[in-house]
Write a structure and sequence with these properties.
single chain; alpha+beta; 7-stranded antiparallel beta sheet; 11 helices; 39% helix; 18% strand
Length: 408
């Protein structure tokens, strides 16, 4: 499995200037190539191939107008052209229905607060014995290594985010055998019901409170954003205020991501099979609960569960969003209709089991995925129960009949 490992970089003053130069040259190479293709499209000419763009880039560096492109590594410029090819491929695949539709490639702006460049093995970058990252025409940049790389990466991407922080991103391949030994097999299975009051409710009755990182940071964010709105556009003070707002949002995003990582790893470690509901996050984000929905970050959490399950040999199930998990009794499987959100606990009319709304949904999610679980007294396989009065009837021949008995 290929995974991305990111580490914080701490370049000094000259190295930050060199990185800014590389970011700018990569942006210019991308925009020049995009302009060539758009001009050809407007003139009705064939699509310009990547080889022609690469030759044009090599020749334009010899002109006085673009001579400064030679101040950075040529690999950075070539990889910028590869990024343009990827953008076009994603656009065409969206038109063909191979992936969700997306717009055509757009020109990059020098005012973009996030920048990135990529170095391949041809650039001869390396990790020095002292632990620094040696980049061509930039120098040895100090790295904060939080963990060791599982294998030798072939490329490194240097990213500057909106908060002004630098990161080195590596794509590495993990060892499947080593991953399986890190988390031995277990007999536990679980279903997960995601919510807002409680972030996750497991089918064994465990409830994980929602941290609400954005809600807790709203006061600080409001103060920083108010300060930004009062600064004159184009001034240095406005740029400082913008960076302060970006750092505040980055702190919230980092805390949420760390929470998702710790919880997903814990669930995958303790369970052999995991089932979750496929929620319509985009639809829920258009309701009055939009801020809380985005603050929870369900999609990011489910994505982590999915790839960690694949990495460590676990089974991951995603059930349909239209499964009536909140309408069916997890003990006897009788469906008694929808209930308003303020109903958090009720008694089943068929088996008289006292059900917690969230735990009941989590158990039903696991059952819908084909997992045998038991929680809060719920039976793994529903047993027959007497039919309710309204479900009984008599044939014309006088023989009684009973309909609607769960399990039959």
């Amino acid at each position: 499995m290929h995974l991305r490992y990111s580490f914080r970089l701490y370049p000094n003053g000259p190295q930050r200037a060199a990185l800014a130069r590389a970011f700018g040259c990569a942006r210019v190479a991308y925009n020049d190539a995009l302009r060539v293709r758009e001009t050809a499209r407007a003139a009705g000419l064939p699509f310009v191939k990547s080889a022609e763009l690469s030759k044009a880039l090599t020749s334009v560096k010899t002109t006085p107008e673009r001579a400064w492109l030679g101040e950075v590594s040529s690999v950075v410029l070539q990889q910028s052209l590869r990024d343009l090819d990827t953008a076009y491929k994603n656009f065409f695949d969206g038109l063909k229905g191979k992936r969700p539709k997306m717009g055509p490639p757009r020109f990059k702006s020098r005012k973009d607060t996030r920048q990135a460049i990529r170095f391949t093995a041809n650039a001869r970058w390396k990790i020095t014995p002292g632990g620094d990252l040696s980049l061509p025409k930039i120098g040895d940049v100090r790295v904060k290594w939080s963990r060791s790389l599982p294998s030798v990466p072939s490329t490194v991407t240097v990213v500057k985010d909106s908060a002004g922080r630098y990161f080195a991103s590596f794509i590495v391949e993990t060892d499947p055998t080593a991953d399986l030994t890190r988390m031995p097999d277990t007999d536990n299975v679980t279903g997960i019901d995601l919510g807002l009051t409680h972030f996750a409710i497991l089918s064994d009755g465990t409830k994980i409170d929602s941290p609400r990182f954005l809600r807790r940071a709203e006061k600080r964010l409001k103060k920083a954003q108010r300060s930004l709105s009062r600064k004159a556009k184009g001034s240095k003070n406005r740029e400082k205020a913008r960076a302060k707002v970006a750092r505040a949002h980055a702190t919230v995003a980092d805390a949420r991501r760390e929470f998702h990582h710790q919880l997903s790893t814990r669930i995958i470690r303790e369970n052999q099979a995991v089932a979750v509901e496929d929620l319509a996050v985009k639809g829920l984000a258009r309701t009055r609960m939009a801020k809380s929905i985005h603050d929870a970050g369900w999609s990011q959490f489910v994505t982590m569960l999915e790839y960690k399950a694949a990495r460590y040999g676990r089974t991951f199930h995603r059930i349909g969003r239209f499964e009536p998990t909140s309408q069916v009794c997890s003990a006897c499987s009788v469906k008694d209709g929808p209930k308003p959100l303020n109903v958090r606990e009720w008694t089943c009319g068929a088996c008289e089991a006292i059900l917690d709304r969230d735990v009941n949904a989590a158990v039903n999610i696991a059952k819908a995925a084909g997992l045998a679980v038991s929680a809060c007294g719920a039976q793994v396989r529903p047993a027959p129960v007497p039919a309710q009065r309204k479900e009984s009837g008599t044939h014309r021949d006088g023989q009684p009949t009973v309909v609607g008995i769960p399990g039959l």
